[in-house]
Amino acid sequence: MKRLITSLLLAVSCSIATPPVQAQYGYACTRDYGSSVNLRRGPTRGYPVVASIPAGSPVRFLSWVWGGDSMRWYRVESSGLVGFAREYYLCP
Q1: pTM for the full model?
Q2: Is residue 6 exposed (0-12), middle (13-18) or buried (19+ Cβ within 10 Å)?
Q3: Is pLDDT at 18 greater than 80 in this prediction?
């Protein structure tokens, strides 16, 4: 129950406090050749993975938020799927 309430509060705060990113595009980038970037349901590693984005695949930046891990997470769209990816794994 506590996790549900925390998730709902995070979702509301993300939708209110998330600064918009004006239709910017970039790529999923990793440090290892042939690997991928996890697209998650929310802005921490504790959220389930929605999909894996292959390195070099285009992404559209929708917004960003400071995650529960004190890292910047971007809400991105890739191949019709929307989710969160850590800034470290995204290149402009």
Answers
A1: 0.74
A2: exposed
A3: no
